[in-house]
Amino acid sequence: MNPNYWYPLEWSDAVKPGDVVETRFWGQSIALYRGTDGRARAVENRCAHRQIKLTMGHVRECELVCLYHGWSYDEGGRLVDMKHDHFGKKLPVLSIRAYPVRERYGLIWGYMGEPAAAERVPLVEIEHGDGEDSWAAIRFDYTWKAHHYMVIDNLCNLTHLYVHGRWVPYDQTTLTHHSLDGDRLELNWHHTLRRDPGLYGVYKQVFGSPGSRETSETHMVYDYPYQRALSNDRIRSCNFMLPQAPDRTRVFSVQFWKAPQLPVLGRPVPRALMSKLWAPAVRPVTKEIFRQDGATVEGEQDAIMGEHFDRPIPELNPSVRLFERLTIERWQAHLDAPAHAGDAGLCTRVKRL
Ligand code: FES
Ligand SMILES: [Fe+2]
């Protein structure tokens, strides 16, 4: 994927002060660590001495120390100390790559392009994602052995709901709108709810559209490289892909649920209570749905990158071509933009999900 964006590297709470963890972007290993001052930092995961991974080492205050001979690096990737005899020589001027880092929405984001450009590329904005009017959030992540294009196709192309059988509440699903404007793709899906005995009432309450409780609307956006699906203005599911390698993609998924009004008190269910109530109910179902998606997408990767590489793909859904086009265009833009080319190839527009 085009590196000139902020990509999620890890959940904030997975990297405590003093921790260092490994993550990857398109094959590059990254050491992500949190100093004892609480700030997260990311540097190339190699010691400039013998190239071993810095994630084998440890954090000392705000520096990362290699476990072998104790060379230490600051957040700019500069060598700042050596824990052995200097043999009468000065500290060598050496550095490794450092990545700009930010934190928001419970995620640590890294800027993978030219570091100097990071300031000009805004972080994604999620409506009701944080602050006073935020919705209750449930977080998941999954890693599939598949190319990111297959993952985005799976997230956005709901013709695949067949694979989920009765795990999703929809009977018929139709694409009612699709459009591409620059690097923002929008789709509308219209669903009728399945009349499962005993569950239909629940489906109508949770997934029914305000206008007609028997149907449901999903407004989907792929504002490259971020995806979200908004269901009836009540459930906002944001999916952030981390392309770890050409055949491996990790997805950080945050579902935001708007609290329903409490009829008795005339105000919404408190956010903390929503998270407590919904997470245990939603998590097992979502986990199973993602498992079904993952197994299928990995099967697609195996087939297409293996024996059936050359076979044509008959495709009926007209939006699929737009996803392909956007994926290829953004990658091509990265290849065409020379390094240090100012704002050429940079997206300085705020992406809103
Ligand atoms: S290999 Fe890292 S200090 Fe020697
Ligand atoms: Fe799915």
TrEMBL record:
The keyword Ion transport does not apply. Keywords: 2Fe-2S, Iron, Iron-sulfur, Metal-binding, Monooxygenase, Oxidoreductase. Pfam families: Rieske, VanA_C. Residues 6-110 form the Rieske domain. It comes from the Bacteria. PANTHER family: 3-CHLOROBENZOATE-3,4-DIOXYGENASE, IRON-SULFUR DOMAIN CONTAINING PROTEIN. This is Toluene-4-sulfonate monooxygenase system iron-sulfur subunit TsaM1.
